[in-house]
Design goal:
The complex is a heterodimer of chains A (about 150) and B (about 150).
Chain A lengths: L1 H15 L16 E5 L3 H13 L3 E5 L2 H9 L6 E5 L7 H10 L5 E6 L4 H10 L3 E4 L4 H13 L1
Parallel strand pairs in A: 1-2, 1-3, 3-4, 4-5
Chain B lengths: L1 H19 L5 H9 L7 H24 L6 H18 L2 H15 L3 H34 L7
Helix pairs in contact in B: 1-6, 3-4, 3-6, 4-5, 5-6
The chains are: A alpha/beta (about 150), B mainly alpha (about 150).
Chain lengths: ~150, ~150
């Protein structure tokens, strides 16, 4: 399936910091870049498609550990979209560790169901904003405006 | 050409009905807007992922709720995932049952959870059937040389 192949081919390119566009180039800093951290394949596909429809180069990883390893390798992103529920290390803990690494990228926390306590925990861990899934271009618009104006 | 026009009208009417009856919401329209010439099967592929994922989750929910000692955190985790994926494709009625389901998980109410499981299975079966019919109509239009009206 084309969508899954597109997501899976990201794994190696994610680790190498190479563009997911498949042309082997390093990620251009002309376009905004985003990292999607979500273990749900449907959300991975959807969020990547939405980001790319907004002209953003997007990479996808399926766990907090993969996100941290990628960021530790020196790859930078303008935006990190991170799910609350992740395997092994959840989104809150992953966010905490990413911020502890000194990474100041805009971080958007996403979850399917949010209680106030979960929202608070995610914001306290270091996400800049928090939304309920699904991600839509409208929900993304204000975040992108802030990044582009920064 | 009359045949194509009739099919197109049928598709539009059918889609409108799905929205009116609450099977689909605006998120489904968002998916359709992400489909283009570079990704002409985007909607079908994402919805197919939803079908696979939902069937897996429904099986896991049935198994988890069938245990002597129910692990409500596990039930909640599966429902959380199902809510996320159903909201991602705009399957409104499935999503609504998941909200109620999660409340019963929180209350550790076995009877409530079992009722919700049955409801979510029913709603999933209905929306699956509706979407398959919609995709078949689209295929008929394309086979007759027409284009899908938006």
């Amino acid at each position: 399936m084309k969508l899954l192949n597109g997501i899976n081919s990201n794994k190696k390119s994610c680790q190498q910091g190479i563009s997911s566009l498949g042309n082997g180039d390093l990620i251009s800093d002309e376009k905004l870049t985003a990292l999607v951290v979500d273990s749900d394949i449907i959300c991975q596909v959807l969020e990547k498609a939405i980001l790319e429809s907004q002209g953003i180069q997007a990479q996808v990883v399926g766990s907090g550990r993969d996100a941290i390893d990628l960021l530790a390798s020196g790859v930078n992103f303008d935006l990190i979209i991170i799910a609350m529920v992740l395997p092994i290390m959840n989104g809150v803990e992953t966010t905490r560790q990413i911020r502890a690494m000194g990474i100041r990228s805009k971080m958007l926390g996403v979850t399917a169901c949010s209680y106030e306590r979960e929202r608070r925990a995610f914001l306290d861990a270091g996400v800049d904003e928090f939304i309920e899934k699904p991600l839509t271009p409208q929900k993304l618009a204000s975040v992108l405006r802030e990044i582009r104006n920064a | 050409m009359d045949g194509v026009v009739q099919l197109q009208r049928q598709l539009l009417d059918y889609t409108t009905l799905l929205f009116q009856e609450g099977f689909l919401n605006d998120q489904f329209t968002q998916l359709q807007q992400l489909q283009d010439e570079t990704n002409p099967d985007f909607v079908v592929e994402v919805v197919s992922l939803f079908f696979e994922d939902s069937e897996r989750l429904l099986n896991e929910l049935a198994n988890t709720l069938d245990q002597q000692s129910i692990d409500f955190r596990k039930v909640d985790s599966h429902v959380h995932q199902l809510k996320g994926s159903s909201s991602s494709i705009g399957a409104q009625r499935v999503q609504n049952v998941c909200i109620a389901f999660r409340n019963f998980c929180d209350a550790q109410n076995t009877e409530g959870c079992l009722k919700c499981l049955q409801q979510v299975k029913n709603e999933y079966a209905l929306v699956k059937n509706k979407l398959e019919t919609l995709f078949q109509l689209e295929q008929q239009i394309l086979a007759a040389g027409g284009s899908i009206p938006m």
